[in-house]
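Human:
Focus on the backbone:
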Amino acid sequence: MIFQDNHDPSWIPDMRGPFADELAAYIRHKRALGFGYTEPTCRLFSRMDEVFAAMGADGTCITKEMVDTYCAIKPGQSKATLSKRRSAINGFSDYLASKGWADVARCDDWQGCGTTFAPYVFDHDEISCVFEAAHRRTAGAGERPHAFYTALCLYYTCGLRRSEAMQLRVGDFDRHGATVRVEMSKNGVTRLVALSDSTATVVAEHVDMLPDPSPGKMLLREGRSQSAWSRDLYAFWHAALEDAGVPLRADGSRPRIHDLRHSFCVHALEKIAQGGRDIRAALPLLSTYLGHKSLTETEYYLRLTEEAYREVASAAEAKLPRLYEGGRHAAS
């Protein structure tokens, strides 16, 4: 099964290691409880099974050595990746323990896994400069650079996740209705996302550039693996940031593509507040549009507005006072 072509919500990787059957049962168990457990998550467990097989595990126990090996910090590995590995092994170990397994270790050393990382929220002038720079790079450059520009438009104007845009197929775009259908996203949610007129025009232009615009073809990365396309997308993104004069962050890193989604949310809340609309009524709509599973996920963006747009936070605070009690960005 090719990663980028898999859309089956019941899919389980072909695992052949010592815990293959138990891991498959665990994935089905979690899905039955309502967890999405889409392909990226399943790959974590497939990799876990491979690591344990390489260690000579016989599938009868999970030792501390096995846990430490799987959770060891690799060069260049992010804290987020490490946290996912530790969460995966702990969840699986707890599952085995609930079934009566006596000898199952877990990773209890979570020190250093937390993060105080704050997303980068572009201001309106910055975002205009970035998109102008990105658009200039598409001039006469062909289908591939235009695909990258189209992706950036979807990330910012629709708040799509990076993986969601990469998984879109031509048939997911409704030219006449100006919408895209997002299938089985991060939370296992399928949703219909409305496009602005300008973004709908960009997507339509891209479809017209495709050599084969059949409904089943990938919209943005036809014929390319997810990793290769993502690598070139980031090169395009970093070049656009440099052209636009967006400085490096304090830690020397560049703003991420995912920061476009954060910026979309903050700017959407800003527009809601400026329009005098009830934020309590608007939050559920924004939550659905973003593909969030609960309002708690969406409320996080109200905290981001504390730094970026204090007037938005003030409007929200008056109606949602408990939201700011004890929060990292709470008003003093």
Notes: The chain has two domains: 3-98, 116-332. The chain has a mean pLDDT of 82. Residues 3-98 form one domain. The radius of gyration is 22 Å.
